Predict the 3D structure of the following.
Amino acid sequence: MKKLIITILGVLGLLSSSCSPFSLVNSTVYNNSDLGEYKTFRIVSPPEGTLPPGMTMVTYYNIAAAIREQMVERGFVESQDSPLLVNIALTVQKEIETAPALPPGYYAYNGMYPYYMYPRNLYWQSYYANAKVITGIYREGVLTMEFVDTEKKIALYSSSVSTILQPGDSQFRNLTEIAQAVKVLFSDFPVRLLPQYTTASRK
């Protein structure tokens, strides 16, 4: 809990001192997972769940494309048979709050908890018992991705980025900013970029 409070205070400092519109809110590995053991991945698709309120199909495809690029640049190969699922959630709130993760079998959207496309109760059984979810940051939007092993039914990793939505907006702004936000989403990802994709190699 102390670590979570420190993280939130750090985020507040970043929001007030940084000129970047995107802030990493959360980056957590669950169940001592090693994502480097996985070679393939797949991104949640609309038929597997429901689009979160405020997310259109165009927005979904833009987010999925940005996530796909980040995964490929880390050596992962996209495969529809992969047990590694990237789940996506979107939240819009007025202030920073955290709350216990939802109880087993409950994943309805009530305007507070992140609305995950792929139902979390399908892998909740072994989920980290003390998990907390970010429920909102001021009047900004929060995009969350959660990595799940659908065969073992466990959560492996989650990351959240804020300020994807402008106050009062209901849609993402543009392709470039979505790509930037997702890049921040992966900034503390436990699997690093391949050498050919690092900043040094691009100079």
